[in-house]
Amino acid sequence: MATKEFLVIGLGRFGGGLAETLVGMGHDVLGVDADPKPVQEFSGLLTHVVEADSTSEAAMRQLGAGEFGTAVVAIGTDLEASILTTSVLADLGVARIVAKAVTEAHGRILQRVGAHRVVFPERDMGIRVGHSLAGSIMDYFQLDPGFALVETRAPKEIVGKTLADAEVRKRYGITVVCIKPQGGSFTYATPDTVVQDGDVLVVAGETRRAEAFGELPS
Ligand code: ATP
């Protein structure tokens, strides 16, 4: 049974940001890095920080790696270290292993050696930023290959109408989740919400329909 919370291996930009986020949310995080520099940089910011080579099964055993509920392998550049570390953690019985991959092939290998979830931060950020450059889209979040959340400026053609009158579901195949007036904060959208010029909308829908809505002129 897992008795410890999060083990984060590799305190680079991805691992470091992830570890600090978990601590900020009130979780216990043990950070591990083979390089003394990030170890020093993160000591005091995380619950514990240890300098160790995560490819060594003996070192990981000594840190009690097998007792963690979740381990994140945040090593990208050194493929060998990323794969060996994932396999060591799987052998030690970590309940949930999340590993960062730089390519699809790297991701497949990580899954083969025991990662329960593989993330592709560079690719995913490229997809997000790419979408944010098209039309009126400000941000983009893919929930599934076929379903997305899009943050976008209110399209001109529905300004001045309520969401019910604009028939957004029927005409555009999307659902407006929440809406933010200029200078205001987000609130839930209702059928009576009147769309104003300059409003920001978060919409959910099939990827191609949510994208098409975000590309309407604002
Ligand atoms: P990022 O983009 O997140 O900054 P990256 O993809 O360039 O990182 P790397 O630089 O390969 O990834 O690794 C991130 C961290 O992992 C580095 O701080 C590095 O010292 C650490 N690391 C690499 N190999 C090992 C290892 N065998 N054991 C522990 N830590 C390691």
Summarize the structure.
This protein has 218 residues and is an alpha/beta fold.
Please give the structural blueprint.
Blueprint lengths: L3 E6 L3 H12 L4 E5 L2 H7 L5 E4 L5 H6 L5 E6 L5 H13 L4 E5 L3 H9 L4 E3 L1 H12 L4 E8 L2 E7 L9 H4 L1 H5 L1 E7 L6 E2 L11 E7 H8 L4
Parallel strand pairs: 1-2, 1-4, 2-3, 4-5, 5-6
Antiparallel strand pairs: 7-8, 8-11, 9-10, 9-11
This protein binds adenosine-5'-triphosphate.
How many domain units?
Answer: 2
Structural class: alpha/beta
CATH H-tier superfamily of the largest domain: NAD(P)-binding Rossmann-like Domain
Number of strands: 11
Query: Would you tell me the overall average pLDDT?
Result: 95
CATH class categorisation of the largest domain: Alpha Beta
Describe this structure in words.
The protein is α/β, with parallel strands linked by helices. The protein has two domains: 5-119, 3-Layer(aba) Sandwich (Rossmann fold); 124-214, Regulator of K+ conductance, C-terminal domain (Alpha-Beta Plaits, 2-Layer Sandwich). 35% of the residues lie in helices and 28% in strands. It is built from nine helices and eleven strands. It has helices spanning 13-24, 36-42, 57-62, 79-91, 104-112, 121-132, 163-166, 168-172, 207-214; strands at residues 4-9, 29-33, 48-51, 68-73, 96-100, 117-119, 137-144, 147-153, 174-180, 187-188, 200-206. The strands form two sheets. It has a six-stranded parallel sheet with strand order 3-2-1-4-5-6, with helices on both faces. A five-stranded antiparallel sheet has the order 7-8-11-9-10. β5, α5 (104-112) and β6 (117-119) form a beta-alpha-beta unit. It starts with a strand and ends with a helix. The model has no long low-confidence stretch (mean pLDDT 95).
